[in-house]
Amino acid sequence: FRLALIQLHVSAVKSDNLQRACGLVREASAKGAKLVALPECFNSPYGTQYFKEYAEKIPGESTQKLSEVAKECSIYLIGGSIPEEDGGKLYNTCTVFGPDGALLAKHRKVHLFDINVPGKIQFKESETLSPGNSFSMFDTPYCRVGLGICYDMRFAEMAQIYGQKGCQLLIYPGAFNMTTGPAHWELLQRGRAVDNQLYVATVSPARDEKASYVAWGHSTVVNPWGEVIAKAGAEETVVYTDIDLKKLAEIRQQIPILSQKRCDLYGVEMKK
């Protein structure tokens, strides 16, 4: 099946972001994509100073538009993420809609991006955001898909749980920056893919050098062999790739690590 990653140029005008995103979703659908994914914070600038201003309830304006375009195009739509307000708390939340427009999954970013690299970048999502507390998966006629958002990708245990639960594709809307992007963006995706013998896709906003937080871009798809099979540059674009589940099955047969794990010695388990 064909997967499309929309590396969207995000502006400060929410309505423009929504209109542009929906237009690119339609374009991707017209080119045969069955699963389409948007980037992290696709409807607003990324930054702790923006989350409260742009936050919405779910359902709300942005998710209603996603539901409508998913139904119109009869696709599975991974709605990147938006700042969500619920019960007085803010979350970084990804919604997924099916071909009938129904909400299939809602993933709140589990691991908050609190880092300090002296002289390069300091950022603390926990100043404004609360963490999610659950894994998020959804089923399609093609395969089961696991969701994470950006910093979630650094935690190998999360990907391992998804693999144990039968996911064959992991999708991470994310916005790595100009420090962590060149260092770890592709490395982490390849690691998650080869460790768990599954496909990993990441969807970044396009790079905006004038933004207060500059995203690395380079939306990417990695196959279960650890090979990069599709990758964007820094500019706004749509990345297409065909996900070959037969290849995934062959790799798992050739190097059967999943059946060779020493569960008598170690294990990773889901607690919730």
Automatic annotation (TrEMBL):
Q: Classify the source by domain of life.
A: Eukaryota
Q: Name one GO cellular component term.
A: mitochondrion
Ordered alphabetically, the record's keywords are: Hydrolase
For this UniProt entry, the molecular function terms from Gene Ontology, in alphabetical order, are:
omega-amidase activity
> In this protein, which residues make up the domain named CN hydrolase?
1-245
Coiled-coil annotation: which residues?
A: none
| EC numbers, comma separated | 3.5.1.3
Q: Pfam families from the xrefs?
A: CN_hydrolase
Biological processes, Gene Ontology terms: asparagine metabolic process; glutamine metabolic process; oxaloacetate metabolic process
EC class (word): hydrolase
PANTHER family in the record, alphabetically? NITRILASE-RELATED, OMEGA-AMIDASE NIT2
Under what name is this protein listed? omega-amidase
Which gene codes for it?
Answer: Nit2
